[in-house]
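User: Could you check the structure of this?
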Amino acid sequence: MKRLTAEAAGLVLDAGCHDYGAMVQPYYRNWMGLYGPRGRSCRGSGRSRAALFIGDVNMVKQVYSDRTGLFPKESWNDQQLHARNLPTKNNLEMWKLEKEVKSILINIIESHLATKDTAGYGDDMLGVMLETCTPDHMQNPLMSMDEITEECKTFYIAGHETTSLLLTWAVFLLITHQE
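Assistant: Sure, the predicted structure tokens are below.
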């Protein structure tokens, strides 16, 4: 596998080619040449459970659309979930940053809550969310503090992405149409 991966690292695809399978998983491409478009492999050392690898697109559609349970499918999200819980260097850094961002957002939200005037919590997006979600108007708030902080993160990232895309297109159009 290491040899196949090293060989695949030197491959260059044509500009219109989207067949990146030979570069990403060259061993599957090799196995399909040896055993045909259907094969089986063992996943990991010491595991007795075999995995099916399929190179035929129609068969992949059939397996994924199967509802009989003949082809149990392990969710990719389940695999990622296990990796997120490990205290790796990257995860520790990510957890630290998440905690820092959450505390900053909670401080901003609490300052909005503390400075409520007769007009409400303000006319920005956070003020509108707090206006509809605080227990002043209802017995049970619509959103918890965690949900409000997650919405703030979403709006920040979406705004950042939208602004950067707008600036990119503006610069592109100014360069291409200099008149």
